[in-house]
Design goal:
749 residues, nucleus, hydrolase, cytoplasm, endoplasmic reticulum, membrane
Length: 749
């Protein structure tokens, strides 16, 4: 296992980072300022300040950096490309929704030192085991609280630290622990003594209780004890349980003596419960486990709305970063709004608003570079086209020259198909969704009559019409260029008349888009028909044009109808994106999730409003005991405040399953609150349900503050004693914050 400083001695790059470098921080063509950057001795923190004496410094953790891009690989650096050569430029990309840091070094060598050094540090962190991560986290706290930097902590400093860590502990108890840890009896704790203090502080009574229930002698779990625990509590498969017990001891038991005895100590037991295997999400379902050879419309597809916007819909900043971020989160359907731009180049922005504009060409380049970084499965480029025929030709040209054979130009076998190809067959392909002259049949059988190009509107969203119908004339019939039309194969945008009309007349490759309100109307009036329609065709649902703040609707409602492309504002954090991340966190995060079989069969009927009527209906009971929380992050920055946490468990699914229940709140303890509260739910359509755990800070006077959350598909839950590793508002991890729960799922009938 490694530490953040692994291999630092012989590494010239890291050595020169520790010495420090002056680089330019770039925010725009006009904002370019010199800053002094250096790596701290912990190999974990980058420190920087302006060269003027007396100015405050800033820091960020290497943990927060997702990746390093070399050269002119961000909009800001591209905008100054004429000033600074690419070999001096690089970009640090942060996790979550934090902006990039664009830097220019004085020489190519200095840039390389930082690029290689940062990559090495990120790699070191990725290779760290759980226990090193914990020790490292403890040391970070130690440094924060060691106010006079002498590498020791006296009792007053420890008291301040406990507050910072969200612990409100009585003085007497804290002092007793302090005395015990102060082995050298100097009245201060050095770092290894502090680690001991921290471990005593975090002793897990709740885990000890379970351990002693199963331990024959109260000291260790013998192989047989552990097997019994895995079989009876964790409900692991009976025939593999002995093998599993052996593996867990090998993997998680720190004591060699225990290993020789084929036994597990409390430390090993805790390590196992805190690992991926002890987490609530079944590791097998985190990897790619579904059949990827079904027709494309049999999958839910992770989809983004107005992908180019980074914030709201009226004045927001448009950016190619929007596409990069969405694609990196596993999104497989992105959207462009295209308008005629200057110099014959089509531009992308939110029409009739003050959002900034970017080039269509740059979006296509980003697609080429990032479409298949996290998933090999196809990406759908959904176009809202407001361009005239001339610039439509330019769009077609860009798609063809930039994407090359990544762009799907014809049906897979050149024959006229009767249903969609599968994600497996479309790997590595980008599919254009837009208007098309005529159908697939004609384009395969020969040329299309040119007068056809006069019919059909080019764009099918009615967003800005609802927005302010007085100020814009209704869209005129606009001509479609044959070149752009030819780029559309399996996703021809059409207007929707009715489910009956589609059933009789529509081709499988015709796709309609609904605003959320239209979709709700259909699902209330004809739920089962909606599900049937989606068993044969694709449907896209997008947020109402009235959501100018880029807020989202609840995607669950739309997934309940089998709608594949539920487009959300990826840039807006909240429960809706939590659910989207939850659904798509399974199946290797590839952006495709197979729909339940009763939504794929044309001969089966399923109405989300009445799940009881479906063939094969088997309701389940879900019982969750919320036992405890660990190291919940502080919400309030005020030194004195400590969290009063409670947990809410929410079920999102068919209307009958929508439910939420809460534990009581614990006064003043975010560090190791203990609840032992049991919450019970009945689930009528388990295949569609998602479970969301939310921790909030109770406040009787005002709104509760959000502390952390975790969402996952009901079908991916592991039963028994499990940890839930909480995520921030942005969906990024906040180690080591967790919940400890016990889960049981039983048949109701």
């Amino acid at each position: 296992s490694s530490s953040p400083c692994s291999g630092i001695q012989g590494d010239d790059n890291l050595q020169s980072m520790i010495v420090g470098t002056v680089m330019r921080k770039i925010k725009s063509r006009t904002w370019k300022k010199q800053r002094y950057f250096k790596l701290q001795e912990d190999c974990m923190t980058i420190w920087y300040k302006s060269k003027k004496a007396g100015n405050a410094h800033s820091t960020f953790s290497v943990n927060d950096v997702e990746t390093v891009r070399e050269g002119h690989q961000s909009e800001v650096l591209l905008s100054i490309a004429d000033e600074f050569p690419p070999d001096r430029c690089f970009t640090l990309v942060f996790r979550g929704r934090r902006g990039n840091l664009d830097l220019v070094a004085d020489s190519a060598d200095e840039a390389q030192s930082w690029i290689k050094g940062m990559k090495k540090l990120i790699e070191n962190l990725e290779n760290m085991g759980e226990s090193e991560k914990l020790d490292q986290w403890i040391c970070e706290w130690f440094k924060k609280a060691d106010k006079n930097n002498d590498g020791r902590m006296n009792f007053p400093e420890i008291r301040v630290l406990l507050k910072m860590m969200n612990v409100d502990m009585n003085e007497h108890h804290a002092h007793r622990l302090f005395m015990t840890a102060d082995k050298s009896q100097t009245g201060t704790l050095e770092d290894d003594e502090f680690v001991l203090f921290y471990k005593m502080l975090t002793q897990r009574e709740d885990v000890l209780r379970v351990f002693q229930d199963y331990s024959g002698d109260g000291q260790k779990l013998s192989l047989r004890d552990l097997e019994e625990f895995l079989r009876d509590e964790q409900l692991e498969e009976v025939d593999g349980v002995q093998q599993l017990a052996m593996e867990l001891i090998q993997r998680y038991e720190p004591s060699d003596t225990a290993k020789m005895l084929k036994a597990m100590s409390i430390d090993g037991f805790l390590m196992y419960l805190a690992s991926a295997e002890g987490s609530i999400f079944h590791p097998r379902q985190q990897s790619l486990y579904q059949d990827m050879t079904q027709p494309l419309n049999h999958y839910f597809i992770s989809s983004s709305h107005n992908t180019y916007l980074m914030e709201d819909q009226l004045r927001g900043h448009s950016s190619v970063e929007g596409y990069i971020r969405a694609l990196k989160r596993g999104c497989r359907c992105v959207e462009v709004d295209c308008w005629d731009g200057p110099n014959g180049e089509p531009i992308v922005y939110h029409g009739h608003t003050f959002t900034s504009k970017i080039l269509f060409k740059d979006v296509v380049i980003a697609l080429r570079n990032y479409a298949f970084k996290v998933s090999e499965y196809p990406v759908i480029l959904s176009t809202e086209n407001h361009c005239g025929v001339e610039q439509q030709r330019v769009m077609a040209q860009h798609l063809n020259t930039i994407l090359g054979d990544k762009l799907l130009k014809s049906t897979l076998d050149g024959k006229i198909p009767v249903s969609f190809p599968s994600p497996e067959e479309l790997k590595g392909k980008i599919l254009l969704k837009g208007k098309k002259i005529g159908g697939l049949e004609e384009s395969l059988n020969g040329p299309v009559e040119p007068e056809d190009s006069l019919t059909g509107e080019v764009s099918d969203e009615d967003e800005f019409i609802q927005f302010n119908s007085r100020s814009f004339p209704q869209k005129s019939k606009q001509r479609l260029s044959k070149e752009l039309s030819d780029c559309v194969v399996y996703c021809k945008s059409v207007h929707f008349s009715s489910f009956k009309h589609s059933r009789i007349h529509s081709k499988f490759y015709e796709i309609s888009s609904f605003t959320e309100s239209k979709a709700r109307k259909h699902l209330r009036e004809a739920g089962a028909e909606f599900v049937h329609h989606n068993a044969r065709q694709l449907t896209r649902v997008y947020p109402s044009g009235l959501r100018t703040d880029s807020s989202n609707f609840n995607p669950q409602e739309m997934w309940n109808t089998g709608t594949q492309i539920v487009a959300l504002n990826f840039q807006t954090a909240g429960v809706e994106m939590d659910l989207n991340d939850g659904l798509f966190s399974q199946n290797g995060r590839c952006g495709y999730v197979l729909k339940p079989d009763f939504m794929r069969m044309s001969e089966r009927s399923f109405d989300p409003e009445v799940p009881i009527n479906r063939e094969g209906y088997r309701p389940l009971s879900l019982c969750i005991q919320v036992i405890s929380g660990q190291q919940l992050p502080k919400v309030n920055i005020k030194e004195s405040s400590v969290v009063d946490p409670f947990v809410r468990v929410e079920i999102h699914g068919v209307p009958l399953d929508q439910a939420k229940q809460e534990t009581r709140y614990i006064d003043n303890n975010g560090f190791n609150p203990v609840w032992y509260d049991t919450l019970r739910f009945t689930i009528h359509a388990p295949e569609l349900a998602l479970v969301r755990f939310v921790v909030e800070d109770y406040d009787k006077a005002s709104r509760n503050d959000f502390v952390g959350q975790y969402s996952l598909p009901f079908s991916c839950i592991q039963q028994g004693y499990r940890h839930i590793h909480l995520l921030s508002k942005d969906g990024t991890s906040i180690p080591p914050a967790s919940l400890f729960v016990h889960v049981r799922i039983t048949n109701l009938v």
